[in-house]
Specification:
Shape: globular
Largest sheet: 8 strands, antiparallel
Number of strands: 20
Radius of gyration: 20 Å
Number of domains: 2
Oligomer: single chain
Distance between the termini: 36 Å
Length: about 375
């Protein structure tokens, strides 16, 4: 592959995001089209080998688009519940993983019964818990990477070339030294996370949200291009049972290829007590009934990536948009202290640039997209 952006991105992922060391076992795979992912996989494998690691290419029967479409059409309940032994091995034994998000058709699962997808997630729940437990301990370094595809470009209402520029720009892969760029962002976000450490109460309020919850004993994590590429967020997990208030997503919410439009949620004592969607509301209600954790917030984050300025219908990018916050029902990340477990994780995005505020322990911390207490 002669595109310098691809090589630049591969070097960034291996040297910075997952920091491959000699002897590390590294899984490389994709969620989407293997055809779209292959040029990037080749360059990542090249960089892993140069770093002294042992690359293993993974073709997951659901994540890989060319196979996954057939899987959900044909698989029996027993086959859906079958756990790939290699996925267990990665979660238990590998040091690193790179997963490319690269769907040729972002709506490929929109006609699949959500219960079949949830059943698959439930079957993998122990694998997922092991994976994130090891990640939280620093034993497993992983990164989910957004790639440009025609489908994503169409979702973002861009031409493919424009979307490619957007993707590489959001990751700083269009610069000579993307590592230094992300390290600088990391230093800024570390100051914000440090200020939040030890605080007890968090409230977000504005035109689109009025939520309050306890953050006592919780950790704020800075993602500056390590777990996600692009990075650009600071997130935590609310203390279970303390979330009260409401949110109305500024942008359409999409899960499993199903667009439910803008969503309204109301919480009482940590649990969703009322939910509405502009369309396909039954899909929202069904997913809220997945399990007990699906009715609770597992994550709240603040977007900080000022290279992402527009909504693209791809949450890997959209949740990083500077001037926004996102709240996710379902699975929380153990490294934040979250104890919320669920087979789903669904983010809802709220714009804060038009007067939105965050108050932490009665101090105005964030106003209209700007951090006030520490430099960001």
């Amino acid at each position: 592959m002669n595109d310098p952006h691809v090589r630049n991105l591969a070097r960034l992922l291996v040297a910075y995001s997952i920091k491959v060391q000699p002897g590390d076992r590294v899984s490389v795979g994709c969620y989407g089209s293997i055809v779209a992912a292959m040029p990037f996989c080749v360059e990542v494998v090249r960089e892993v080998l140069r770093a002294g690691g042992h690359p293993h290419f993974q073709l997951d029967q659901v994540a890989t688009e060319e196979i996954g479409n057939v899987f959900f059409a044909e698989a029996s309940p027993e086959q859906i519940a079958h756990v790939d032994p290699f996925a267990e091995t990665v979660a238990k034994e590998f040091q690193c993983e790179v997963v490319f998000l690269c769907e040729a058709n972002s709506r490929r699962f929109s006609r699949v019964d959500p219960e079949r997808r949830v059943a698959r997630s439930r079957a993998y729940s122990r694998v997922t818990e092991t994976y994130f437990d090891r990640a939280g301990k620093g034993e497993l370094r992983w990164v989910l990477v957004g790639l440009p595809t025609p489908s994503y470009a169409q979702d973002a209402e861009m031409g493919l070339e424009e979307y490619e520029d957007f993707v590489y720009g959001a990751a700083f892969a269009d610069t000579e030294d993307p590592v230094s760029a992300w390290e600088a962002i990391g230093r800024k976000q570390a100051g914000i996370a440090e200020w939040l450490s030890g605080k007890k109460h968090f409230q977000a309020r504005g035109r689109h949200v009025d939520l309050s919850f306890s953050i006592e004993g919780r950790k704020f994590i800075s993602d500056h291009g390590q777990s996600n590429m692009p990075g650009g967020e600071i997130f935590t997990g609310p203390v279970e049972g303390t979330v009260n208030g409401w949110l109305k997503s500024t942008y359409p919410a999409i899960h499993g290829g199903v667009d439910v439009g803008r969503v309204s949620l109301r919480f009482e004592n940590g649990v969703v007590v009322h939910a509405e969607a502009e369309k396909n509301e039954a899909h929202l209600i069904k997913l809220l009934e997945t399990d007990e954790g699906a009715k609770r917030l597992g994550e709240v984050g603040i977007g900080t990536n000022d290279r992402i300025k527009i909504f693209t219908s791809n949450m890997l990018f959209d949740e990083k948009m500077a001037g926004t916050i996102h709240a996710a029902i379902g699975l929380g990340y153990p490294e934040t202290g979250s104890a919320n477990r669920s087979a789903i994780h669904w983010d809802f995005l709220c714009d804060m640039k038009d007067g939105g505020q965050i108050i932490v322990d009665d101090e105005l911390f964030y106003d209209s997209g700007e951090f006030l207490v520490v430099e960001a």
